[in-house]
What we know:
The first copy, chain A, has one domain: Arc Repressor Mutant, subunit A. Helix content of chain A is about 60%, strand content about 10%. Chain A has 5 helices and 3 strands. The radius of gyration of chain A is 22 Å and the shape is elongated. The N and C termini of chain A lie far apart (about 45 Å). Residues about 110-114 of chain A have low confidence and may be disordered. The interface of A and B includes residues 83 and 90 of A. The structure holds a DNA duplex.
Amino acid sequence: MLQQATSLDLAFQALADPVRRAMVERLSRGPATVSELARPLTMSLSAIGQHLRVLETSGLVRSEKVGRLRTCWIDPAGLLVTGRWIIARQASVERDLERLGEHLAAPTDPWRDP
Amino acid sequence: MLQQATSLDLAFQALADPVRRAMVERLSRGPATVSELARPLTMSLSAIGQHLRVLETSGLVRSEKVGRLRTCWIDPAGLLVTGRWIIARQASVERDLERLGEHLAAPTDPWRDP
DNA sequence: AAAATACTTTAGTCATGACTTGACCATCTC
DNA sequence: GAGATGGTCAAGTCATGACTAAAGTATTTT
């Protein structure tokens, strides 16, 4: 089914993993190196590198290597696309519930006994 | 690593799949039966049933069967937990950028040449 | 009662994901 | 320049995910 992952796919897939969410949580408090990201997580540095790559290709995180340290930070635009999708659904649900409310409040049902 | 999936895990994992997001999009415009959900998606009814189960255990969707029709609808509380997580990260990032801004704006650096 | 509808279940396949290990390569530090 | 530090690459393993196909169940229609 998945023939061409959209940026929304990549972002939600990236956030689906608790380790990657932990990394995003850490980075949302400020930039960090790969080792700093790895420190609280019981996992090889290699694994963290792989998670980081997922986060980068999803657009949620960016990074740059200077010397032997790679510094990572959040790209706010990445969070924005996922946030917008959720908010749009919430708005849609609210509108739907509103319509339902109006319907129940209506004194007569125009569809019945025309 | 994943020993006990939290509700946040389940919700993000559920939204990571484009088919399931399409189902949520449909349901956010109002309730629907399983067949109605399946109609626009080129996939067996069985597959849709399986996606539905994922959405239900994640807390994003609820459903009830009456007669031979199962009607599904969004549980707004489900969208809320994911939305809150994202908004919290965005807020955190903004605070961080603000701190950075203050730092750059400061006329002198108290850490240098004490 | 037979046929159609609307799922549901089970079992199996195939692809993808999340790691680990070990070798490797720069770049600092001494 | 030797050793430690910080990261990267390439395999390989093991579990999970996304389906399908086929058979089964419960309801509704005719």
